[in-house]
Write a structure and sequence with these properties.
The structure holds two protein chains of two kinds. By secondary structure, chain A is of the alpha+beta class. Chain A folds into four domains: about 220 residues, ATPase, nucleotide binding domain (Nucleotidyltransferase, domain 5, 2-Layer Sandwich); about 170 residues, Nucleotidyltransferase, domain 5 (2-Layer Sandwich), CATH 3.30.420; about 110 residues, Substrate Binding Domain Of DNAk, Chain A, domain 1 (Sandwich), CATH 2.60.34; about 90 residues, Substrate Binding Domain Of Dnak, Chain:A, Domain 2 (Up-down Bundle). In chain A, about 35% of the residues lie in helices and about 25% in strands. Chain B is α+β, with helices and mostly antiparallel strands. Chain B has a single domain, classed as HesB-like domain (Hypothetical Protein Aq_1857, Chain: A, Sandwich), CATH 2.60.300.12. Chain B is built from two helices and nine strands; from the N terminus they run βαββββαββββ. In chain B, the strands form two sheets. Chain B has a six-stranded mixed beta sheet with strand order 4-5-2-3-9-8. Chain B has a three-stranded mixed beta sheet with strand order 1-6-7. In chain B, about 35% of the residues are buried. Classes of the chains: A alpha+beta, B alpha+beta. At the A-B interface, α3 of A face α1, β2, β3 and β7 of B.
C-alpha cells in the first residue's frame, strides 16, 4: 500500500491527484531538488543518500552519466565531461570566447547557429541540453521519492541572469519535460527559506559563497514582493580558491621534489578535507602519500584563517560595492542570510558578521537553503497552501522600452517592476500627414536602441493624416505572471489598434532570436552624451521640417526676401551640422534658427488669429 | 474504538507539527473517492469540530470524525520508507480490498 503524507486542513487530495511540486537549485557546481512533504520542506537524497548532485554531465560514446559518476570521468575523459555549464546558459558564441580559456571544450564554431554547441562523442550539445540532463536526473529522483509525477517546479536562477539566460533555463526545463511554475531569484529563495517573506518590510543582504562563485545581493521586501536592489560578486571566487591556498601551503611544507597531476590532486583533496574538518575543530591532521612522496603534518584553524583571509576580504570589497550601488549604509540592512557551502568556514561567518555588524542567519544548511526556498514557493504555486499570504511575485530583470526618433530607447516599464504589470504611454507623430507608425519593442538598460535587445517590431497603420504632433498613439506594455509580454498600440482619435504577443526572447531554433543574443549587452556604459546628441539631432530635423512647411505655405506672403534669406541661411547652417556637430553646438544652432524665425512665427500667429476673427461678431468667438 | 500510532509514526507527527509551528494534532479520515471506493485522508488539525473523536496515542492527538471512524476503527498507523519514498502507512483491519496503488480501499 502506498505511503501517505499529511496535508494542510481541507487540502488533502483524491488519490492520483496529488499536486506534488519541487524546488530546484540548478547550480554552477552542484544542483539540488527539494519538496514539501508533511508541511516540511526538505531536500531529497539519491539512493546513496547524497543530496548534492554535482552539475556535471558525461557524454561519451553511447554512454551518458550525470552527477558523481560523471565527475569521476573528469580526469579520464575531460573533453566529454561537461561541468559549469550554467556559465554558458543563454550565451552566444562571442560571449563564450569572452569567458576565456577556463572552458576547455571543443566548441563548434563554423555553423550558422550562434548558440554555442559543444562537440562530444555523443554529438553536438548546447548548454540548454546539458542542463536538461541535470534537471531530468533531479526530477527522476523526486518522482521516485514522491512515488508520483511532479505537477510543476520552481527553478532558481542568479538575480543577475538576464532574459536570455532565464529563457534558456526555461528551455532546459521544457526539454526535461518539466512544467515550470516560475523562475525564482536565488537570493529571494534563500530569504523565503528563512521565512523572511513573512516578516515586515525591510532590506536583506544575501551572501552566497559557493565552490567557484561568489554573489552578494541586496533585496528589499516591500508588501510581499522582493525587489533586487543591487547584485555583485565574483564569478571566479569560492571554496575552491580556499582549497588552493591551503594546498599551496601544504606543498610548501612538504617540499615535494616533483609534483605530478595525481599528487597535485591528492594535495587538493587533503586541503579540502582539512578545511572542512577545521569548521568544527581547532586543528586538522594532514596525511599525503603518493609514490615515494609522503608527508604528514597539522594545520591550525588560525593558520588556515591566515591563508584564506585575502579571499574573504575580496568578498567584503564586493559587499561594500553593492551597498554603494544600492545607495544604502550597513545600518540599513535588516538581515544577512548566508548561502553556499563555503560560508561554513568559521572565519567567513565572523568577518561577514563584523562587516554588517549583525549576526548572519546561518541556521539552515547553506548548501540546501536555496532549494528549500524554491520548494516552499513551488508548494504554494501548486495550490497546497491556501492560506498562504505569500504571493511572492517576480520582478522584471531588465527594463522594457520602445524606440523613439533618433534610435533612442524610452523605458515603458523599468527593471525590478513586479509582474504581472501593465503600463501605457502616449506618443505622437513626427511628420505632418503621417498615417503609420513603427513600434519597436526593446529590452535593456541602455540609452541607444543599438545597445538594447530587440524583442519585436510591428506597425500601426491607417490612422488619419494629421499635422505632426496631433495624433495620439497609446502604446501599452503588459507582462503576465509567466513573463510573457504583449504590446498594444492604439491611435486614440480614430480607435485603430494593432497588437503583438512577444515571443520568448530566446529560442534554440529561431535564427532571428539568435541574432539578439549577439547584441547581448554586458555592462551599461555611460552613454548619456550619445543620447543627448541623438535628441538634438531629432530636434534639429523637427525644426527644419517645421520651417520648411511654414515657408512653403506662407513665406512669400508674410516675409520680405531678406527675411526669407536669413531664415534659410540659418536653416541650411543647422542642416549642415546635424551629422557632424556635437550636442551643444546643435543646440545653439537650433536656438539661433528659432531666434531668427521669431518675428516670422509672430506674424504667422497674427495672420491666423486675424483669419479666425475676420467677419465674426465678438460673441461668436469661443475663447478657450 | 481506537486509532493507534506506532512509535516511529508518533515521533514523525510530533516533528512535523513542531516544524509547522501550529496545530493540535493529526486528522485521520476517509473520503468517498478513489479507484476502489474509499480513500484515506490525513491532515494537520487546527480546530476540533463538534462531531470529532479525539484519541491520544503516544502523546499525539489523533482526530477522527465519527462518520470516518466506522471505516478505520482499529487502524494502526506506521511511518515507513520504501526506497527514496517515505510516508504514513495504514494497517486497517476493516479494509478488504485495496486498489493497485493502495491509496483507496473497500470494506
Amino acid at each position: 500500500m502506498s505511503l501517505l503524507q499529511i496535508s494542510e486542513p481541507g487540502q488533502s487530495t483524491a488519490p492520483h491527484q496529488h499536486r506534488y511540486s519541487a524546488g530546484i537549485d540548478l547550480g554552477t557546481t552542484n544542483s539540488l531538488i527539494a519538496t514539501v512533504r508533511n508541511g516540511e520542506a526538505t531536500t531529497l537524497a539519491d539512493a546513496s543518500n547524497q543530496h548534492l548532485l554535482p552539475s556535471i554531465v558525461y557524454l561519451g560514446k553511447d554512454k551518458k552519466l550525470v552527477g558523481r559518476a560523471a565527475q569521476e570521468m573528469q580526469a579520464i575523459d575531460p573533453l566529454n565531461t561537461i561541468s559549469s555549464v550554467k556559465r554558458l546558459m543563454g550565451r552566444g558564441i562571442e560571449d563564450v570566447s569572452r569567458l576565456g580559456n577556463n572552458l576547455l571544450y571543443r566548441f563548434e564554431t563554423d555553423s550558422h547557429s550562434s548558440v554555442p554547441r559543444i562537440q562530444t562523442d555523443s554529438g553536438l550539445v548546447s548548454a540548454v541540453e546539458v542542463s536538461a540532463e541535470i534537471l531530468k536526473t533531479l526530477a527522476t529522483r523526486a518522482e521516485l521519492a514522491l512515488d508520483d509525477d511532479l505537477s510543476g517546479v520552481v527553478i532558481t536562477v542568479p538575480a543577475y541572469f538576464d532574459d536570455a539566460q532565464r529563457q534558456a533555463t526555461r528551455d532546459a526545463a521544457r526539454l526535461a519535460n518539466l512544467n515550470v511554475f516560475r523562475l525564482l531569484n536565488e537570493p529571494t529563495a534563500a530569504a523565503v527559506a528563512y521565512g523572511l517573506d513573512q516578516d515586515n518590510d525591510g532590506v536583506i543582504a544575501v551572501y552566497d559563497l559557493g565552490g567557484g562563485t561568489f554573489d552578494i545581493s541586496i533585496l528589499r521586501l516591500n508588501k510581499g514582493v522582493f525587489e533586487v536592489l543591487a547584485t555583485g560578486g565574483d564569478s571566479a571566487l569560492g571554496g575552491d580558491d580556499m582549497d588552493h591556498a591551503l594546498g599551496e601551503w601544504i606543498l610548501l611544507q612538504a617540499e615535494f621534489k616533483e609534483v605530478d597531476a595525481i599528487l597535485a590532486r591528492k594535495v587538493l583533496i587533503a586541503a579540502r578535507e582539512a578545511k572542512e574538518f577545521l569548521t568544527l575543530n581547532k586543528s586538522a591532521h594532514i596525511h599525503i602519500e603518493h609514490d615515494k612522496h609522503r608527508w604528514q603534518g597539522t594545520i591550525s584553524r588560525e593558520k588556515m584563517d591566515e591563508l584564506i583571509l585575502h579571499l574573504i576580504k575580496k568578498t567584503l570589497k564586493s559587499c561594500r560595492r553593492v551597498l554603494r550601488d544600492a545607495n544604502l549604509s550597513k545600518q540599513e540592512i535588516g538581515e544577512v542570510v548566508m548561502v553556499g557551502g563555503s560560508t561554513r568556514v568559521p572565519l567567513v561567518g565572523q568577518m561577514v558578521g563584523d562587516f554588517f555588524d549583525r549576526k548572519p542567519m546561518a541556521d539552515l544548511d547553506p548548501d540546501r537553503v536555496v532549494a528549500i526556498g524554491a520548494a516552499i514557493q513551488a508548494n504554494v504555486l501548486a495550490g497546497n497552501q491556501p492560506d498562504a499570504e505569500m504571493l511572492l511575485l517576480d520582478v522584471l530583470p531588465l527594463s522594457l522600452s520602445i524606440e523613439t526618433m533618433g534610435g533612442l530607447s524610452e523605458k515603458i516599464i523599468s527593471r525590478n517592476t513586479p509582474i504581472p504589470v501593465s503600463r501605457a504611454q502616449e506618443f505622437t507623430t513626427f511628420k505632418d500627414g503621417q498615417t503609420s507608425m513603427s513600434i519597436h519593442v526593446l529590452q535593456g538598460e541602455r540609452e541607444l536602441v543599438s545597445d538594447c535587445r530587440s524583442l519585436a517590431r510591428f506597425e500601426l497603420r491607417g490612422f488619419p493624416p494629421l499635422v505632426a504632433g496631433a495624433a495620439r498613439i497609446r502604446v501599452s506594455y503588459q507582462v503576465d505572471a509567466d513573463g510573457l509580454m504583449s504590446v498594444r498600440a492604439e491611435e486614440t482619435t480614430s480607435g485603430i489598434t494593432a497588437d503583438i504577443v512577444v515571443k520568448p526572447s530566446y529560442g534554440l531554433t529561431d535564427s532571428e532570436i539568435e541574432s539578439m543574443l549577439r547584441d547581448s549587452m554586458d555592462h551599461a556604459r555611460d552613454d548619456v552624451s550619445a543620447r543627448m546628441l541623438k535628441e538634438q539631432q531629432v530636434e534639429s530635423r523637427r525644426v527644419i521640417e517645421a520651417i520648411d512647411t511654414a515657408l512653403a505655405a506662407d513665406g512669400d506672403s508674410l516675409l520680405s526676401q531678406k527675411e526669407i534669406e536669413d531664415i534659410i541661411q540659418a536653416r541650411d547652417n543647422l542642416a549642415g551640422l546635424i551629422e557632424t556637430a556635437c550636442a551643444d553646438k546643435l543646440k545653439k544652432s537650433i536656438k539661433l534658427l528659432e531666434k531668427i524665425s521669431e518675428p516670422y512665427v509672430a506674424k504667422r500667429m497674427n495672420a491666423s488669429v486675424q483669419h479666425m476673427l475676420t467677419g465674426k461678431r465678438i460673441n461668436e468667438i469661443n475663447l478657450k | 474504538m481506537t486509532i493507534e500510532l506506532t512509535e516511529v509514526a508518533a515521533t514523525r507527527v510530533q516533528h512535523y507539527l513542531a516544524n509547522r509551528g501550529k496545530g493540535i494534532g493529526m486528522r485521520v479520515g476517509v473520503k468517498t473517492t478513489g479507484c476502489s471506493g474509499l480513500a484515506y485522508v490525513i491532515e494537520f488539525v487546527d480546530e476540533i469540530q463538534s462531531d470529532d473523536e479525539v484519541f491520544e496515542t503516544r502523546g499525539v492527538k489523533v482526530v477522527v470524525d465519527r462518520k470516518s471512524l466506522v471505516f478505520i476503527d482499529g487502524t494502526q498507523i506506521d511511518f515507513a520508507r520504501e526506497g527514496l519514498n517515505e510516508g504514513f502507512r495504514f494497517k486497517n483491519p476493516n479494509a478488504k480490498d485495496e486498489c493497485g496503488c493502495g491509496e483507496s480501499f473497500t470494506i
